[in-house]
Amino acid sequence: MKKKLLAVTGLFILSILLISCTQQEKPKLYTDKISNINTPKLSSDKNGIINKGYIASDGEWIYYCSYHSFVGGIYKMKEDGSGKARLSGDSTDNFVLSDDEYIYYSLPNYGFYKVSTDGKERIKLSNDCATKMQVIGDTIFFININDDFRIYRMGTDGNGKTKLTEDDNLNEMIIVEDWIYYVKRNEDWIQENIYRVKTDGSKKERINNDNSFDIKVSEEWIYYTNVSDDWNFYRIRTDGNLRTKVSEEMSKYYIEEDWVYYDDGKIYRMKIDGTNGKLLGFGHICDIQDEWICSESRTRSESYIIKTDGSANIKLPKIDIGDVTKISIINDWIYYKSYDDIYRKKINTKDLQLDTKLEHLPKLQLAVTSSSNLKEKNIEHKAEFATDGNYETAWVEGVEGNGIGEWIQLTATWGADEGEILDQKGTVLGMAIANGYTKTEKLYYENNRVAKVRLEFSDGTSSDEYLIEGRIGFSSIGLAIPVKTQYIKIIIQDVFEGSKYRDTAISEIIMEGVDNIFYGDFVNCPN
Fold it and tell me: What is the rounded distance in angstroms from the CA atom of residue 511 to the CA atom of residue 412?
């Protein structure tokens, strides 16, 4: 498997389409049920800070994260690409940038942390694994995974941790003024009714009796998808009155100012009271920022950016960066998240064109060294072959005998780039090793395979691990406890001998990161 070259070649023609809407393309609205209601103003970003979970902006700096083990962490750079630095080596795929100049995040097996935006302070706040974090003033609100997904609050200094409700198995949580709105799930994890409780834990109230999904709250209104009524779009006052169906044919929606944007394979907008429905474009909404909507098809084969008034629709050129998991817009830039890498393109707002240049947001790289390499007539089996993404190459130790005691080491570095590493230590959760020379089955069995390795880390700890014989592909090594380290050294301790040669080979090494922070197995969270 060869690593794909991240290059964009040729010129792309970006078509700008003006979309007119016919009467039959408009959504079915229920305007007769709504009258004389002031439409609320809703903004998803507070204090000028834009948070997308994996990337954020405070207007001067871009902050982003990678959950790639070891070289991952939390990074920052200026919008022009200068000033890049790794603030924390903690591998995470989700964080909250607060206006108190701290970044808050949760790590399985480690707990709840914050790091200062200058990278000088990294503080552990609690042992809890948290999700749905919200920082308001000097208080953090979160759903505590350790305590069966109940709502907690604590100070941004880690003090005063308090459980706010005994309701468990919670998912959605929104805070407006002094109320927390949330949705309970039953024992089958099906979302049920909307509740609210005061931010001090008092005065719990049930708002509705509908199976509610994807709630939004603005001023006096709660908006939600009513699963009980065929997933139609509803709103209800925050006191539980005036429950009203607003529209049908809605699968996912966003609220920006006094407009609702939603999709059902096509993208629409309407006033928040259900009037002025209009077709804007096609696909499914993945982000809205300022005057732009970012959309994509379910097959990921086509992506668009669309003006929020429907005046222009730009088809984005395909980019060869693997599976794109998220697309976001921040300050006239489109950001693409692909596994643990982030890329971006500039939007030229004057002529509604997209720059052809694709930028990769910088992060640390793996520098690979070894104690020896096998040199043959036409090739040297170098250490970097073990991290080149190619099954047909391999690092092969170069000493006489089976290579017991020989090693390969991975160290995090900026490489040719220049930047700061404010947190030198990355998080290692484990690794996957393609053992032996996997170019062909014949070469696999003719050469030695590793049977046992010792993993050594910069903190002085080590771990002995065993690999499985006969597996032509990856074998996973999971560490019992994640390790913070500057490097990892893999030392050959024992081998499965080859039928022809005594050379020991490793074809690929992949460091494993935090793949399932919010969806995986939480049993390893500290108590």
Answer: 12
94 vs 105: CA distance, rounded Å: 7
3-state SS string over 433-449?
EEEECCCCHHHHHHCEE
Please name the fold of domain 365-512: Jelly Rolls (2.60.120)
Handedness of CA 304, 305, 309, 312 (dihedral sign): negative
AA identity, residue 179: W
Note the pLDDT tens digit of each residue in 254-284.
888 788 888 877 888 888 777 888 899 888 8
Q: Name the token pair of 410.
A: 């991975």
* pLDDT tens readout for residues 319-333: 777 677 788 888 888
- Rounded CA-CA distance 463/455 in Å is 5
Structural domain spans, the chain? 365-512
Which pairing describes strands 85-88 and 420-421: parallel, antiparallel, or unpaired? parallel
Cα atoms found within 13 Å of the Cα of residue 255, Cβ hemisphere only: 24
Give per-residue pLDDT as tens, 333-353: 888 887 678 888 887 766 666
CA distances from 68 to 71, 72, 93, 444 (A): 6, 4, 9, 28
Round to the nearest angstrom and report the end-to-end CA distance of the chain: 41
Cα gap 384→389, rounded to integer Å: 10
